[in-house]
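Hey all, quick one. A colleague (J.T.) asked me to put the S-adenosylmethionine job into the tracker so the inputs and the structure tokens live in one place instead of scattered across chat threads. No bug as far as I know, just bookkeeping. Sequence used:
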Amino acid sequence: MTLAEVLGGATDYLERKGVETPRLDAELILARSLGLSRIELYTQHDRPLSEAERAAARVLVERRGKREPLAYILGDWGFRRLVLATDARALIPRPETEIVVERALALIEGLDAPRVVDVGTGTGAIALAVASEHPGAWVTAVDLSPDALALAAENAARLELELELREGDLLAGLEGPFELVVSNPPYVTGDEIDGLQPEVRDWEPRLALVGDRTPELAADARRVLAPGGALVLEAHAGHAQALAATLEELGYADVCVTPDLAGRDRVVEGRWTR
Ligand SMILES: C[S@@+](CC[C@H](N)C(=O)[O-])C[C@H]1O[C@@H](n2cnc3c(N)ncnc32)[C@H](O)[C@@H]1O
């Protein structure tokens, strides 16, 4: 069988399994499995594949057919300028979270050595992006999940970026002061989880998805923020305006909501000026 025939077969299989982007996923899996770029899949489309090559690709395609997320199968995923190791220990970093980082960086711009804490760090995505894009920053990354912290530690080592990693519940045990508290906390409601795609519902950690403790985090952040420090939170699109109102009630200044690339209210920020 040629590469083109295997690619066609994998695409049809993934389509039957309900994968949203079967051709793209088949290409990415096959390219990774064969050690080729996606362009090379086309320049070598007549190349016959050996039985060993087909067997190796089949294992990965079958995993995708079970709706395991592509990022877990490939084992890495792009986030801003970084490539992060990804597996079932932590949430896959999302494009909307890149906007959280953008706002976080804007709010610490001009500070030489801002102290930053990322609450619920997962793969380390936000913490590592801030560390790499604001080289003076001192970044602490907290998570309740030891598995997620282990993955964040692997990512930090691989990227040669320094983080202080802490196992903990939100900001418990931290004193600050921090110039930035940033978080993409769990915000899926219990009612919503069953309606999510199988890739999310059945594969990503529940602890990373379901939760409603963001107002508590916003309230406690006042304790650890330096005067003038910023709070940046990713929010459920349906709850972002209510969260912004909560920040105002809590006494934050300059509260605003930034939409994601799809135009949904997504990132809520404020400054602690007291
Ligand atoms: C939505 S994920 C975000 C992961 C990563 N920051 C990102 O944006 O890709 C939420 C993370 O918060 C962690 N978490 C959940 N409850 C927590 C708590 N009470 N304290 C600290 N971390 C918590 C989860 O383990 C998970 O890693």
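Adding what we noticed when we looked at it: The radius of gyration is 21 Å. Residues 3-66 form one domain.
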